Amino acid sequence: TDYSDSAIGASRIWLREKYLDLTALNAQWGTNFTSWDDVVPAQLEQAQEGIDLANVDWSKLNLAAFVDYRLFMDTVGPVAFADFAETIREMDPGAKVGLCGTESNDTWYGHDWYHLCGAIDFICGYGDAAATPIISRGMRGLQREFQRSFRQPGALLSCWVGYHGSSFYRDQPLKLLLHDFDGIAYFSGEPKAYQDFPYLDYDYTLSRRAIDGAAGVFEIRRGLDQLIWNSERDNSGVAILISQPSLHVASALSQEGSWGGNCAAMIQAVEDVGLQYDCIAPEQLENGILKERGYRALLLPGVTCLSDLELSIIQAFAAAGGVVVYDRAPGLLDGHGKSRAAVPVLDGESVVGLDNFPAERAANAVTMREVLGEFGFASPVTIEYEEDAFLPAEIIVYRNGKHVIISIQTDVADWHQPKPEATITLPREGFVYNVREGEALGRTRTVTATLDPMHILLYAILPYEVRGVRMTLRSIGHPLPAPHC
């Protein structure tokens, strides 16, 4: 939100690199500046002048002077962190440098996760590790997905937990591990002031919350962490475009909550049909990530802004048979937030526009299952139970050579929902192991389990039966030190 002289001066340098010449900027912004020193961005009130916010005419918008400045401000944090990191590593070359306590992917916070993750290698955020995403908090509850998608190799991801009472405490470390996180941070406080959050009681004994949290950490430290970290997460061939320019346009039109809701609903619907995904940024789209990673579907939640290059790439992707799903007409505005002279055409047999989306969560899941199912996308796991209730489950698949690891976590659709016994059909037959219980289930493709939101199910499918384990220590050339007792 900084409109100081120094910030505006820095933005002029950034704009000159983007536009190269003042004539191009004036044409885009609809201005008549005669010198770069005269260039001043639009603030929110100026951007909204002359717009009927209750009935927006998308054919007559020019928000470029506002959107460009917000995009510039999105670079300020990453640049600052890069400078901090350089200074810190002069003194400590191996230091991890990042930030803690992160907020929403929001116009006013400057949390553009693609660029932030490119500048830092440590995050301890306010993402979500609860039993169900905190959609009511907008994009804050989806930070986890942005961070895991945009993290750089070697970066460390962690998340704050402990702000509400929940029997899910035991499984929070595992949930974060299954979302490619490396650590967990527990919030605590003095029992009288923070009676819901203590880890030490008045007699200095560990609280129930501390005991449950420790049990969860001890469980994954017995080998689950190495199992997951050394396996590859299956993204189901689905990419979801998180459009920062579209977010800023939504903010200018007082629709920021709607944009966040669209993103949250589409992400949640993909999870609810048993699939996974990666979030991608506009720059990644322009740089060819769809082909590089072999995505088969591209989802566009609330993507009103597309650059000409982005639009042409999406059109080519669809022409080649790639599935494109959108909830609002994509590309009505260019990458700077200005209306196009003509509405862009995205058509083809594999292009689908969603009507009345988002709706209720169960309806969103039905819609997404029908749309993606038409093009061969299906959950790797089927879950059958007798209860007449909507019990969404997030399914995550990891692969390690011929080994497959399946995670199933029932989400909370209703805090009073049943916990039925279910028959679960796995992706293929093999020797199945209940990883958390250390139990061999034999050669099979189906298992039975209780669908409890407070307990994550974890199975491994192996092509062989494990009858024993033999370990050989590799010589390291010198005697091991004596153990300390």
Task: Describe the protein's architecture and organization.
Residues 131-138 have low confidence and may be disordered. Strands 5, 11, 12, 13, 14, 15 and 16 form a 7-stranded antiparallel β-sheet that branches. The chain has a 5-stranded parallel β-sheet with strand order 7-6-8-9-10, sandwiched between helices. α4 (64-91) packs parallel to α5. The chain is α/β, with parallel strands linked by helices and 485 residues long. The protein has helices at residues 5-19, 22-29, 44-48, 64-91, 113-119, 143-150, 172-177, 208-229, 244-252, 256-272, 282-286, 289-293, 308-319, 361-373; strands at residues 98-100, 122-125, 156-161, 185-186, 232-233, 238-241, 278-280, 297-300, 323-326, 351-353, 382-384, 393-400, 403-410, 421-434, 439-450, 457-462.
Keywords:
single chain, about 475 residues, alpha/beta, 7-stranded antiparallel beta sheet, 5-stranded parallel beta sheet, 14 helices
Query: Can you count the helices?
Result: 14
Shape label: globular
Helix content: 25-40%
Derived structural class: alpha/beta
Main sheet characteristics = 7 strands, antiparallel
Unreliable stretches covering 5 or more consecutive residues: 131-138
- Radius of gyration (CA) equals 25 Å
N/C terminus separation: 57 Å
Per DSSP, what share of the residues sits in E-state strands of 2 or more residues?
A: 15-25%
How many DSSP-defined strands?
Answer: 16
Order of SSEs: HHHHEHEHEHEHEEHHEHHEHEEHEEEEEE
Average residue-wise pLDDT: 90
